[in-house]
Specification:
- The protein has 309 residues and is of the alpha/beta class.
- 50% of the residues lie in helices and 8% in strands.
- The protein has helices at residues 3-6, 25-36, 39-45, 47-62, 73-90, 119-128, 147-158, 198-217, 234-248, 252-261, 266-275, 279-288, 293-297, 303-308, and strands spanning 67-71, 97-101, 136-141, 162-167, 180-183.
- Helix 7 links the parallel strand 3 and strand 4 (162-167).
- Helix 4 crosses helix 8.
- It starts with a helix and ends with a helix.
């Protein structure tokens, strides 16, 4: 392994687990748990940069831009996962938040490790996703030097997009390519170099923050309820009904009736119920308040309904 890798925190040998191959099963899982406990603190240290990244992403998406995650291997899989979960959880269009993994969708199931070394492939993906000056690209790389990701970030910046990095080593190469560098330095892995472990856990936590905080700022929740979810299966239909009942105080039968009438849109159903509106009126009220349910409910015409609910 070259010197450029050997000095990285994520590649160093962990002194706490140097004899893990001699341990019992219980000792092994205890050691892993002890190392995992350090991840949240590493993420906490990066909260200022995470907050700055959310501000940039939120403003871009509010203005009609898009968010693209770029990564290879575990990092790429985590980006695709977070992007795909935004659709049912927050009811966004499939192109608002997207994830790109080196090697394409096949790499989600089978390792195609050589692709991460292709900077030109990364650059090309920026064109495939039609990234421009309204968009934000987040490069995810434990080492902070994966050529696929570096190439993508270089091209994204050339196209005028805002660029953010999520890395697990300090002062990595990618820092020169981005507007915001989120460094969650998780240290040596339980198994040296196995960044699917602590580094991957930190990346997952950070991506959760980026997408969730952004969606909250875009009005996708009411309190801590996912009122913009897409009820695309039985579980989500049940959740939509529970949310309706919790906000309105109405029985389940009313939830079913209003959700059907609203086209299974929780926010519209709640406004129809509490405001005495039809579907079109409720949709217009939401549009006038940038999709924020709380703002729409706080309008003068709804006060009596809210006070009595």
């Amino acid at each position: 392994m070259g010197d450029c890798f050997s000095g990285m925190e994520t590649e160093k040998a962990n002194p706490n687990t140097k004899n893990i191959d001699l341990c019992s099963v219980q000792e092994i899982v205890t050691l892993i748990n002890q190392e995992d406990a350090k991840v949240a603190e590493a993420v906490k240290a990066a909260l200022p940069q995470i907050g700055e990244a959310v501000e940039r992403i939120y403003k871009a998406l509010k203005a009609g831009g898009h968010l693209l995650y770029m990564g290879a291997g575990t990092s790429g899989r985590l980006g695709v996962l977070d992007a795909s979960e935004c659709i049912p959880t927050f009811g966004v269009g499939k192109d608002m938040v997207q994830g790109c993994i080196a090697g394409g969708d096949v790499a989600l199931r089978f390792p195609i490790e050589g692709c991460e070394d292709d900077a030109e492939l990364g650059k090309g993906q920026i064109g495939v996703y039609e990234i421009g000056d309204k968009d934000v690209v987040v490069g995810i790389s434990a080492s902070g030097r994966a050529p696929f990701v570096l190439g993508a970030m270089e091209e994204a910046r050339r196209q005028g997009a805002q660029t953010i990095a999520v890395v697990n080593n300090p002062d990595s190469e990618i820092k020169a390519y981005v507007d915001v560098c989120i460094e969650a330095v998780t240290g040596p892995e339980v198994i040296s170099g196995s960044t699917r472990m602590k580094a991957g856990t930190a990346q997952k936590m950070i991506l959760n923050m980026l997408s969730t905080a952004t969606m909250i700022k875009l009005g996708k929740v009411y309190g801590n309820l996912m009122v913009d979810l897409k009820a695309s299966n039985k579980k989500l239909e049940e959740r939509a009904a529970r949310i309706f009942c919790k906000v309105t105080g109405k029985p389940r039968e009313e939830a079913d009736r209003y959700l059907r009438a609203s086209g299974m849109n929780s926010k519209v159903a709640i406004l129809m119920c509490l405001g005495g509106l039809d579907r079109e009126e409720a949709e217009r009220a939401l549009a006038e308040n940038d999709g924020f349910l709380r703002a729409a409910l706080n309008k003068e015409s709804f006060k009596n309904d809210l006070n009595n609910s």
